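ESCALATION

Customer reports they have been waiting on this structure for their group meeting. Please prioritize. Original submission:
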Amino acid sequence: MGAPAASLLLLLLLFACCWAPGGANLSQDDSQPWTSDETVVAGGTVVLKCQVKDHEDSSLQWSNPAQQTLYFGEKRALRDNRIQLVTSTPHELSISISNVALADEGEYTCSIFTMPVRTAKSLVTVLGIPQKPIITGYKSSLREKDTATLNCQSSGSKPAARLTWRKGDQELHDTPTAMIRPDPPHPREGQKLLLHCEGRGNPVPQQYLWEKEGSVPPLKMTQESALIFPFLNKSDSGTYGCTATSNMGSYKAYYTLNVNDPSPVPSSSSTYHAIIGGIVAFIVFLLLIMLIFLGHYLIRHKGTYLTHEAKGSDDAPDADTAIINAEGGQSGGDDKKEYFI
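Update from on-call: job pushed to the front of the queue and completed.
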């Protein structure tokens, strides 16, 4: 291998030394962004703040639950006048969302595009204010022993409003109701999950029975009326039912559990692997360049050899002699050839 190839090899060794993992000096904690969960009442304003200590010359970015970019640094990406920039520095990106609706609830993502990309999640919970209850089924007058069904409804409440009936100052007993509340609200694989069965009524239900669709035996309670999953996995996904019972009757609530993928957690090993991958890619690139130069070198020398080999045909007196000379068949002037026609 010639001098150019040796120079390339030396350059390759120097690059590998400079990019060794020991010299990277990256800190997982310093370049990991952090944020916090927020709770806001519908119609209010929520501020999402994302901070990072070491930005590594990269800008922070906020995305909504649909993974649409809201802001990249100080640049607006989504045309929504409710979303405004509060603070944009290399170490912080804060935005505000005004006139929040129930549809705005979900996980918002703060990202910084380092190697590897690091993210932080902020769960926004939107509370709905219940509207004034409306009673339907009322008739102006009833005859004795007539039957009337009165319905009381209130919309816009989150979590669900508790409705009670009163006759004058006396609270009326009613059949129980129940709802299932997950904790955390957006369960992920590997997390601990509690499904709380919240019974309501007068009197409040005291007995709870858990079931899973497709599973024959009832599930046992492990903490009062809650069903506990110590370590979630994909097989836990499904529809669960909770039957709340009091001396006034029973009510069955349902909840569909979808176990999401675990939240990405950057680690030092991922940083190490990313650096090694970059070094390997660069080595392969340099080797390809060296092979190309070597190929050109061999082709040029082979062409020169073939040119000298065919030189003997230049001084030949006729075509037959030229062919013989080109094939390396030259001999002294004493060689004789006989031709017959």
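Sent to customer with the following note: The helical segments are 3-18, 268-309, 319-326.
Escalation resolved.
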